[in-house]
Write a structure and sequence with these properties.
Strand content of chain B: under 5%
CATH class of the largest domain in chain B: Mainly Alpha
Largest sheet of chain B: none
Strand order of the largest sheet of chain A: 2-1-3-12-6
Order of helices and strands of chain B: HHHHHHHHHHHHH
CATH architecture of the largest domain in chain B: Orthogonal Bundle
Structural class of chain B: mainly alpha
Distance between the termini of chain A: 68 Å
Strand content of chain A: 5-15%
Shape of chain A: globular
CATH superfamily of the largest domain in chain A: Periplasmic binding protein-like II
Number of helices of chain B: 13
Oligomer: heterodimer
CATH topology of the largest domain in chain B: MetI-like fold
Helix content of chain B: over 70%
Structural class of chain A: alpha/beta
Distance between the termini of chain B: 43 Å
Number of domains of chain A: 2
Number of strands of chain B: 0
Shape of chain B: flat
CATH superfamily of the largest domain in chain B: MetI-like
CATH class of the largest domain in chain A: Alpha Beta
């Protein structure tokens, strides 16, 4: 009798302690993030995570560094498939479409619903240009966090020396300036653009858009416009800069090479992400400035950068915790701080109304140019099998830069054919079939 | 008699050409390493005029190492990598010795088929196994642990193959003598075969340690907890720049810190390593 009581007493005690610990313990979630522009940003990100963890006691976030943008996609998908879906992942902004299409991530409404937040009202505080990449079929799947556009950086000393008064605004002016700035025998190049994977496709898209094109069909992820006049013009323009006007090195140029040769004065103009702005500001030991990407038909650039997504298969408590973290991280003061630290522009418009942001912009007018260019920004390529479709044109662009004998028509046709083949499975299920 | 001096000249010339050729090959092979060494001590890492040069034309600075040590938690990463590498190796040595012995000496039904299945493992590209292996780790509760990183390597097909070959080169006379003296099979293994197979085990250990020390993708997949991070992933966390940044000095210093222990170990034990490779025929 007494023993039974003792046992039940112990059991009750055990149950209540267990309950108490579940109530008291913070909900632990994982936040996977890639290396953005520069290594020291990974450290800053861990600092932000720590600040969040000490600011409240309901949620404990574990910051997990996950390598490059592509590694981040592989790792988060693999852990989700293995049954450990990460609650928050900072993902390349154009991957959200594909992840949503494959039913791997949760609509943001499901997370925001746990805090009774209306996502439409929430998103209205973000720049219109960053919104399309966050949606798939009218549903919000990601929250933009760090965004960028391609922008022209130029060495003002070199411009003065060559007698160029202002930054080029059109492709014609751009070629003229580059010719004047180039010195013989590779001593100095007029212009350099990164042509390694990922950067390459982004810049082909930027040039195509500046050439009047749309590049892909934002409404239907099974269509890409490679073998079209605007893209062909862009491929030809980039090819000619290297092969015809000889103002740029031939072959594939890595983004690290581009920034290094700009800093050493070996090149006068470069096209890089606005996300590299703080990095350039800290390391350029000469007068530099930034300008809009020159236009041919119109001013237009694609959005780049990364957004926050949440994988399927998490518990309701984890979803709630994920939203707590996402809303903290994207609050105007935090997202603004991150923007000033990195050089990415803040996708949340309201961040620019804060006094510390106004002060920063006044002191660094180059940061404003990235924001001004937003007026001309459009969504980033997002299709079925985005990476493969993007690589189809990158391979051809790289071939054009390396092989002077390859014709633009051939290259564009090949890129189109490869991309179409990759999207065929999706087309067969959608536009190519009767959908019930 | 008259043609001999000419022959000696020829031989001498050939010798000089050969030495020159070897020096050239050594220079080509070592230039990335030399560049890394020079760049890690170069004061201006974002591109001074001579930043591509191999010649140290500057007063060396330790600031990049300072940044690297401040940026990265190197003591922790060294410790974790050491645990990972030694934990993998210790179990591997036991399993490959036993399995190698089994395939070399014992006879049982289906032995050849079983061996073929083991060899098949060598033909699989590791990325294919990422998701299945992760799923198994989650089920075993080993996800996000160093043991989880080690586990898939505990049955090394390469090691088993190597040890089988090594055991087969040892004449059976030794074992038979030991058995006549009253040894059980495990005593034969411990007292006779393993001492004779030492060079093979050493060769396998070198390959295993170098491979796991340098591995990036699998630890990246398994480990989430920053306190369990290993060197390679840690190095990337501050050396990788996605959108055009290039801090060459820091990258070089960090890489040097990661490779230094293996490099020093190799220099110290060079003779033993080379001998063991010569003996076992592994290149």
């Amino acid at each position: 009798m007494r023993i039974e009581r003792l046992i039940s007493g112990i059991a009750a005690l055990a149950v209540s302690t267990a309950l108490a610990t579940t109530v008291l313990a913070a909900e632990r979630i994982e936040f996977m993030f890639p290396a953005p522009v520069q290594g020291k940003l990974s450290r800053e990100m861990q600092k932000l995570v720590k600040e969040f963890n000490t600011s409240q006691s309901d949620v404990e976030v574990v910051g997990v560094f996950t390598g490059s943008y592509d590694d981040t996609k592989i790792k988060s998908q693999a852990s989700a498939e293995a049954g450990k879906p990460p609650a928050v992942v900072l993902m390349s902004a154009n991957f959200a479409t594909e992840l949503a299409m494959n039913d791997l991530i949760v609509p943001m409404g499901e997370l925001a619903g746990t805090a009774n937040v209306d996502t439409e009202a929430f998103m209205s505080e973000f720049w219109p240009a960053v919104r399309p990449n966050a949606y798939f079929n009218g549903t919000l799947y990601s929250i933009p966090f760090q965004n960028s556009t391609p922008i022209l950086y130029y060495n003002k000393d070199h411009f003065a020396e060559a007698g160029i008064k202002k930054a080029p605004e059109t492709w014609g002016e751009w070629v003229d300036a580059a010719k004047k700035l180039t010195k013989a025998d590779g001593e100095r190049w007029g212009l350099m653009m990164p042509s390694n994977y990922d950067y390459n496709g982004w810049l082909v898209q930027a040039l195509t858009m500046s050439n009047g094109g749309q590049f892909y069909n934002p409404a239907y992820p099974g269509e890409i416009y490679y073998d079209h006049a605007s893209t062909k013009g862009a491929l030809k323009f980039w090819r000619d800069l290297a092969q015809e006007y000889k103002v740029m090195p031939t072959g594939v140029t890595d983004s690290k090479q581009v920034s290094t040769s700009f800093f050493t004065g070996k090149t006068s103009m470069i096209v890089l992400s606005t996300g590299a702005l703080s990095f350039v500001r800290e390391n350029a030991k000469f007068a530099y400035d930034v300008a809009f990407l020159p236009r041919n038909v119109r001013n237009a650039v694609p959005i780049g950068g990364a957004s926050l997504v949440s994988f399927k298969g998490t518990t309701p408590e984890q979803k709630k915790a994920a939203w707590t973290f996402i809303s903290w991280l994207t609050a105007p003061d935090k997202i603004g701080h991150w923007s000033r630290f990195t050089g990415y522009f803040s996708p949340r418009q309201t961040a620019y109304d804060l006094p510390e942001m106004k002060q920063f912009i006044a002191a660094n007018p180059d940061a404003l140019r990235a924001v001004e260019q937003l007026r001309y920004s459009q969504p980033w390529i997002a299709t079925y099998n985005t990476v493969g479709v993007r690589k189809a044109v990158e391979d051809q662009m790289q071939a054009l830069l390396s092989d002077a004998g390859l014709s633009v028509d051939e290259a564009a046709a090949k890129a189109q054919k490869d991309a179409d083949e990759l999207m065929q499975p999706y087309i067969e299920k959608t536009a190519g079939a009767l959908i019930n | 008699m008259r043609s001999d001096p000419l022959g000696r000249h020829m031989r001498h010339a050939l010798y000089c050409v050969a030495v020159g050729l070897f020096c050239g090959i050594v220079l080509v092979w070592s230039s990335p390493f030399l560049w890394m060494l020079v760049a890690s001590f170069r004061p201006d890492s974002f591109g001074a005029a001579g930043m591509a040069s191999l010649w140290p034309d500057f007063t060396p600075t330790l600031e990049h190492f300072g940044y690297a040590l401040e940026d990265g938690d190197f003591p922790l990463w060294y410790l974790n990598t050491l645990i990972l590498v030694s934990g993998t190796l210790v179990v591997q040595l036991i399993t490959v010795t036993m399995a190698g012995y089994t395939f070399a000496r014992l006879t049982f039904r289906g032995k050849d088929l079983l061996f073929a299945i083991f060899l098949f493992q060598l033909m699989l590209a590791p990325p294919v196994l990422i998701v299945p292996n992760l799923t198994t780790l989650v089920k075993l509760g080993l996800y996000d642990s160093l043991i989880g990183v080690m586990a898939p390597y505990w049955g090394s097909a390469f090691g088993i193959f190597l040890m089988r070959q090594v055991f087969r080169t040892i004449p059976r006379d030794f074992e038979e003598a030991a058995i006549i003296d009253g040894c059980a099979w495990w005593q034969v293994l411990i007292h006779v075969l393993i001492p004779l197979a030492k060079p093979g085990l050493l060769a396998f250990s070198v390959v295993s340690v170098v491979f796991h020390w340098n591995e990036f993708l699998w630890p990246l997949m398994v480990i989430n907890d920053p306190s369990k991070q290993v060197l390679t992933v840690g190095l990337v966390s501050f050396a990788l720049g996605a959108e055009g940044a290039s801090d060459w000095g820091l990258i070089a210093a960090g890489t040097l810190l990661v490779t230094a222990p293996l490099f020093i170990a190799f220099v110290l034990f060079q003779r033993q390593f080379v001998n063991s490779f010569m003996f076992s025929g592994v290149k």
